[in-house]
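Sequence in, structure out. Go.
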Amino acid sequence: MSRLVMRRSVAGGWGGEASMAKGTAAGLLNDQQAQSVFKHALLRGYALPFSVMTASKIPGRRAVLVDGYAGRGRYDDGTAASAELLLQAAAHARSSTQVDVVLVERRRSDYRRLSEVAVEYRQTGLSVATFHGQVQDHLTEILARAESAPLFLFLDPCGAILPFAELYKLLRRARGTRWPPTEVLLNFSADFTRRAAGVINKDLRDHAAVPMMDAVCGGPWWRQVALDAHKTSQRGDWESAAEAVVTEYARRLGAATGMKHVVVPVRRQLHHQPVYHLVFLTRSEHGIWVLGDSAATARRAWLDVIGPGSEPHEGMLFNLAVLQQDQEDQRAVEAIKHNLVKLAGRDGSFKLVQYPQAVLGEAYGLAGDGLVRRAGRELHKAGTIQIDCTPKRVRDWRVG
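Output:
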């Protein structure tokens, strides 16, 4: 089972056993906040390729996109929020692919606003379904709409995510086969994890946060994981506890559902603790590759909003306060070249997409397809390794 774990900020470098990407703030506010830029850019960059790529192998070329916590769909300033981003993806795909969009919202006032946005797109001929209530109450209807079609679910609540048992039933029992594909991008609240861990640390086991966290994690295992991580933390804060819990959560959910996973910490600023982590689940290396490229693009959009940080971060591979973007890119290219040479010596002939985390390593989510292309061409020109650079998509290039 593949495991990708990123441990630093949206603009920072990657560490751990593999790699990651980075995100935004939870909740739909009146105006889009800087921390939402990454999440929405990631969603914008991933929803369309998922729909078109996966539906191309399905009779009727159909895919289903779901926003389970859709909010109002659009910010008051007219900017598209997550729900409208999925609608826009469906609109862009319509020339080749039928993309059905399902939007669910619990709050009545937000649902009314969401419905108005949905009507606009429905009038253009798109298939758009809106449901009022909790997403778990509509899973049967959602699954029926997605029968025999690829399914992408975006689950971004302001608080706790769906219970582990509900996700297991959805991803293993109902959608447990490799084809048609199922993918999920979900919000795992770091704020809530820290709060629940603090309650356990004070031995307040009757607090409402404890059974809620037990349900989210599929058992009480998270309690000791959080306490142990906090105890060994150099800073004495709860950031390491939140990271340890979400890392183990993603591992367990991936193992239970037979899916690969990526964990994406999301911060308001470079030096802040994560607001939440995005957890991505897929059964395809293509999914891991495309998400990494989308994350790299999203990260640059996020940096454009917040600007480079001025504080160095221990363990970061890239410090934006010191390095200019071109210098950072060059370091990423060199890291990718090193990884490709190492892979060529180990595995002989392979397509890059077969090993996305091994190709990108610590540059996963930092380096997009453009930098991978640059690294591969430099190796090819130097004759260091054999690379077939003729395929249009760099992920289809073959080494050896």
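Check: Confidence is low (pLDDT under 50) at residues 1-31, 310-316. The radius of gyration is 21 Å.
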